[in-house]
Specification:
Elements (H helix, E strand, L loop, with lengths): L24 E13 L3 E8 L2 E8 L4 H7 L7 E10 L12 E12 L16 H6 L1 H4 L3 H23 L3 E2 L17 E3 L7 E3 L5 H9 L4 E9 L11 E10 L3 H18 L10 E3 H8 L13 E2 L6 H7 L6 E5 L7 H13 L2 E10 L2 E4 L2 H4 L1 H10 L7 E7 L8 H16 L10 E5 L4 E4 L4 E4 L26 E6 L2 E8 L4 H10 L4 H15 L6 E7 H8 L30 H7 L6
Parallel strand pairs: 3-5, 6-9, 11-17
Antiparallel strand pairs: 1-2, 1-4, 2-3, 4-5, 7-8, 9-10, 10-22, 12-13, 13-16, 14-15, 14-16, 17-20, 18-19, 20-21, 21-22
Helix pairs in contact: 4-6, 4-15, 7-12, 13-14
Bound molecules: aspartic acid.
Length: 590
């Protein structure tokens, strides 16, 4: 028989009781974490979000409560009226270990089925099971702490933004396509058959219009929706700290974000100092083989094309540049380990991987016969390799216009080797601004220029005239912020002139008709006195993930989706009734 909660009032959370509470009459409520029956004495560990407290039921002094406790199982929901008593022998393993509760009365508020995994700190349930039963998973301490930390982070963001004079404005979720380089999630209109809203890939156009509207400083903690392939740090819907300001210099925007990040890190007990260093995009690619370099370790890349004479290049079928790095202490790698590295490099698109082992006696190389001893030495020296190091050089199978394909491969190997060799100092928090992006990237698939960020990104003043004649040379006013090898956000000073915006759309291949249809309203707005403006958006999920020390953003999202974009708990996406489809004027193609 279940009891009613009635007028019973909780006096304390389980996890907050201490020796100083001894003698107090308390009422705690929560879940039965564990039950131990020793005959005359029965112990229930009761858990709520604050922690666990041990409750004892004494058959002799409280026979009724004891009898009731015998029926209780794990995860039953209970309320206990009890007295706090000091334990003779404290249990140092739990925060409330100095005391226990001597039960006077037990209220059984609900039963529970046996959960598919134990509600413990460490579990080995598959992530799918955890997602399907997320309500049980959330009872565990870590998911719980993660959500609490996320709350603190978002709260701090709002506080700092408010202090800096930004106002939070909501923008529509049912809107039209905002290009951020992904596919849209579409919502069919019931009232206008055949027409669709798009869920925003970001509030980009709206926040720019807010600047035209004179709001001057806008921010929003906002959901964005992008239908793209998912990874550990990507979800179809994710949260941004989105902001925009009028009349800014680039350093003003950097200052705002540095302020936010210093404060947010402090919430997680991490001390960082601003300003953050800057790096040009092309230097990041050449030195780290990445547009989001992890600066917690060195192992920098070096271009070593010159160490490969023409004949060797021909034999090895090397076309573009060769990039190399020295892996500290890896000279002892076995044949098998080198083969594995080669396999990895090939999987990343390498034409070949070439190794030099550096020992106190000298250097040996897999390509010594082809490039000669002198070049092997130069290769080692170019990478600053010391005795004990392994030099890893790679060439790319295919060159990519506007970037260094071999560097990108070497950059991936740098990360893998850095991790494998324990070279990454995990106690460090390395922020970095990347600037100097090209405005356009060449898309092999679409055989056209596409925006490197989005089409509203501003253009370095002296490059505007090259928009039509040399688009590949046009530099953008965009920037990214990077933390420990993760892109936390990106933004730019925008285009605020209608004529320039129209030229960019045209350079992207939009016809007059297409740009009127898709962006006419925005181009019109730009003609009514648009102030220079700029902004940025930070990924809140990623920030929370990194500060929580997690490897997947699903760990800091209450109800995350799988990499197949499914919500296993709510079982979405799902089919809908024929009626609903009829109302929307939709027929499903089989
Ligand atoms: N809308 C951009 C994004 O979501 C950020 C920005 O340019 O402010 O990446």
């Amino acid at each position: 028989m279940l009891d009613f909660l009635g007028n019973l009032k909780r006096t304390h959370y389980c996890g907050v009781l201490h020796a100083s509470d001894a003698g107090r009459d308390v009422v705690v409520m929560g879940w039965v974490h564990r039950r131990r029956d020793l005959g005359n004495l029965l112990f229930l560990d009761v858990r709520d979000r604050s922690g666990i407290v041990q409750v004892v039921f004494n058959k002799e002094t409280q026979p009724e409560a004891h009898a009731k406790a015998e029926h209780v199982r794990s995860e039953y929901v209970v309320a206990v009226e009890a007295k706090v008593v000091k334990r003779e022998k404290a249990n140092p393993d739990i925060a409330t270990g100095e005391i226990e509760l001597a039960a006077a009365k037990l209220h059984l508020l609900n039963t529970a089925k046996t959960p598919p995994f134990p509600i413990e700190e460490q579990i080995n349930a598959a992530e799918e099971t955890r997602l399907r039963y997320r309500y049980l998973d959330l009872r565990r301490p870590k998911p719980h702490q993660n959500l609490a930390l996320r709350h603190k982070i978002v709260l701090e963001m709002r506080k700092v933004m408010d202090e800096m004079g930004f106002i939070e404005v909501e923008t529509p979720m049912l809107t039209r396509s905002t290009p951020e380089g992904a596919r849209d999630y579409l919502v069919p209109s019931r009232v206008h058959h055949g027409q669709f809203y798009a869920l925003p890939q970001s509030p980009q156009i709206f926040k720019q219009i807010l600047m035209i509207g004179g709001l001057d400083r806008y921010f929003q903690i906002v959901k964005c929706f992008r239908d793209e392939d998912l990874r550990a740090d990507r979800q179809p819907e994710f949260t941004q700290l989105d902001l925009e300001m009028s009349f800014p210099r680039q350093e003003d925007i950097f200052g705002v974000i540095e302020n936010v990040m210093v404060r947010v890190c402090a919430v997680a007990g991490i001390q960082v100092t601003a300003p953050f260093p800057h790096m040009l995009y092309k230097d990041a690619i050449r030195k780290y083989g990445s547009d989001k370099p992890d600066l917690r370790f060195a192992m920098e890349l070096h271009e070593v094309t010159e160490c490969f004479p023409a004949e060797a290049k021909q034999k090895l079928q090397i076309e573009g540049n060769v990039f190399a790095l020295a892996a500290p202490g890896a000279a002892g790698y076995s044949r098998k380990q080198l083969d594995e590295l080669t396999e990895k490099a090939n999987a990343l698109g390498a034409r070949g991987a070439y190794f030099v082992k550096v020992t106190a006696e000298g250097m040996t190389s897999t390509v010594e016969k082809l490039i000669g001893a002198e070049n092997v030495k130069r290769l080692g020296a170019a990478c600053g390799a010391k005795a004990g190091d392994l030099v890893v050089a790679v060439s790319a199978k295919e060159q990519v216009k506007g970037t260094e394909a071999a560097a990108l491969i070497a950059g991936q190997l740098r990360l893998q080797l850095g991790e494998a060799l324990g070279a990454i100092d995990k106690t460090q928090w390395k922020f970095l601004w990347i600037t100097g992006f090209p405005l356009f990237e060449w898309s092999e698939t679409d055989r056209t220029w596409v925006s490197a960020q989005h089409p509203f990104t501003g253009i370095v003043d002296e490059d505007v005239e090259k928009l039509e004649s040399a688009p590949w040379e046009v530099r953008s006013k965009g920037y990214d912020i990077v933390l420990n090898g993760y892109e936390l956000g990106s933004g730019s000073i925008r285009i605020h002139r209608q004529d320039v915006q129209e030229r960019v759309f045209k350079a992207l291949g939009l016809t007059q008709e297409q740009l009127r249809r898709r962006f006419g309203f925005f181009l019109d707005a730009l003609t009514y006195g648009t102030p220079p403006h700029g902004g940025i958006a930070l990924g809140v999920d990623r920030i929370a993930m990194l500060l929580a020390g997690e490897k997947s953003i699903r760990e800091v999202i209450a109800f995350g989706k799988t990499t197949a974009a499914q919500d296993l708990m709510a079982e979405s996406p799902s089919e809908v009734d024929k009626d609903q489809l009829d109302q929307l004027g939709i027929q499903i193609k089989k």
